[in-house]
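Margin note from the TA: students keep mixing up input and output lines. Inputs are the sequences; the output is the structure of the whole complex. Example:
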Amino acid sequence: MARSQKLAAKNMNILVFAEQIDGSFKKSTFEAVSYASQIAQAHNGNVTAVVPGNVADDKLAALATYGANKIVCVKHDNLNGFNAETYAKVICNTASAEGSSIVVISNTYSGKSLAPRVAARLKAGIASGVISFPNTNAGFVVRRNVFSGKAFADVNLTTAVKVLAITPNTFNTLENVQAVNIVNAESGLTDVDFTTKSVEINRVTGKIPLTEAEIVISGGRGLKGPENWHLVEDLANALGAATACSKPVSDMHWRPHSEHVGQTGITIKPNLYIAIGISGAIQHLAGVSSSKVIVAINKDPEAPFFKAADYGIVGDAFEIMPKIIEAAKAFKAG
Amino acid sequence: MKILVCVSNVPDTTTKVIFTENNTQFNTAGVQFIINPYDELSLTRGLELTEKLGGTVTVITVGLADTEASIRKALAIGATDAVRINATPTDAYYVAEQIAAYAKDQDFDLIFTGRESIDYNGGQVCGLLAEMLGLPSVNVITSIEIDGTTANVERDIDGGREKLTASLPLVVSAQKELTEPRIPNMRGIMAARTKPLTVVEPIAIEATSASVGFELPASKGSVKLISVEDAGTLIGILHNEAKII
């Protein structure tokens, strides 16, 4: 047993799921390839990217830019849109064919539905929301966020094959150009495999998805009503940011639930989080405390947010925001 | 309609997270445990569906006897019966295997989980369970309607929403907008006392992971205050000092 593990470690093959949307890769895909590539470099391994669905050859090359040694394309008309069950089959078939010992998946919404299916099929230990590279000094230990960002947990995956679902916006994309071998593989799928069918997809266009945003501007009850949200939106537009809100705001239907960040909403970790009129209850902080820089604007100097923030302005948001918006517009223009 | 709702027993959202035993154990002293909020939405939606279509809603949890308060609450909200698998839930894989072992010959039409538990945030049980049972799955759903043997569902996707159809039996995970949670009434609370709660012993399975330890994030340095008059300088500070824009 020990011997076979040693041999496997020597030829460590890391498989990355290269998620495409309408034939293009997202930044989270390149983050995942870069992540896999860095593990491969540390362990004398190689990286295979598996691409379910149609992607043009010129776009595939980008995967090699970030360190893929081999790209396996699996084409089937029904694979162009995401489908958890069949994507899991494709990934597991590729993992078996390649002898992969680690499968890396970005923990996007698609990744979240896919990674556990892959783990169960491969009988692999799984860690999701991973925020570190594996530490192999004693086992195979990765760090992940738990308690909605209130703490970290270190988990040792004890199976031969491991599935790592890494948190988007956590690892840098890193160029590491490789000579790449692009191959096509049969999906082996038939129509009966597609038990779920997409009927309609509505993506918000012209707006940055909250989970991918590097800057997030967020409003709370202190803004007094939905009619004042231009203060949030104007600053977001000036900085190219996404907009978010606190739980009370979405509960009162001032803003859609999809904008609610916090423990029972979305957990985000942008580079910059600006909270306007949000007191900073523990449940809210849980969802945003991993942000690199936090700015709190609140009229109450005792608001808990000031204990979690890097920068703070104590005062009336209706007086403060126009000044910041003006400065942001001047900054973008200049 | 035979529905199974998987329930996790989690610390209340206001819990201050503290670890003991050299940062290897979560300190449960004084912690109030609740039904995972997403599981509560699952339960409510399950009840709404059976009220319309007929059928039963069974809740299942993997946990020791101290989880029974949450199970009784689920029964008080309206579940038909409950199953407790008498084991400490060590990780999502373990939980999914235990539930799969129970559910595999029970012919459930629909199995609900939460999109994640608010303590360990794995969001894995839906997909693991579906794969173990060989069923389709749709996660983070915001609506579900049943039409014969087909489910019409909507789910969150990156940057939007997707409408799908899926064939039953099906495993889904609940996202916030699915429904509003129900508060148990006195009649429900009384009825819950006599509803069946079956305790099942766990199957033996090999662990796939081991917890090494926990750590709390480093606390931030003290906040740097900017006056209201100088609010506009924030942008310059974020650019020059924080180098973030």
